[in-house]
Amino acid sequence: KFKSFGCVVTIAAASASTLAVKGKKVTDILNTPDPIKTLENSILHELDTIPEENWHCLPTAVQVILTALLDNATKQHNQQRQRQITTLLNTLQASVIQRLALPNTK
């Protein structure tokens, strides 16, 4: 159960993110070659599609999952996992900033 504020796609992505990680171990989520892309693809699989103008909803949902995992790692005093997730969050943030900086090609 969660609270979500935002557009319909943001709420749908948040809901899909819970389905994407349900029943998975933290190690299953984090120990893939590209955890961010894996989470994005899992969420997209649940949603089927996202309108292009709502692309930002996908990394937002991934950020929420990673932030929850970071909170859990912090509570468990797992510094190695904290560093791993912090690096992923920084990578995600940098990719969002880069995408925002790209000129619109339409």
Number of strand segments: 0
The total of helices stands at 5
Distance between the termini: 38 Å
- What is the averaged pLDDT score? 89
The stretches of 5 or more residues where confidence is low (pLDDT under 50) are: none
- How helix-rich are the residues, as a percent range? 55-70%
Strand content: under 5%
Care to describe what's here?
The protein is mainly α and 106 residues long. It is built from 5 helices and no strands. The protein has helices at residues 8-21, 26-30, 35-47, 57-75, 79-101. Helix 1 crosses helix 4. The longest helix is centred in the last third of the chain and has 23 residues, at 79-101. The chain is globular. The N and C termini lie far apart (38 Å). The model has no long low-confidence stretch (mean pLDDT 89).
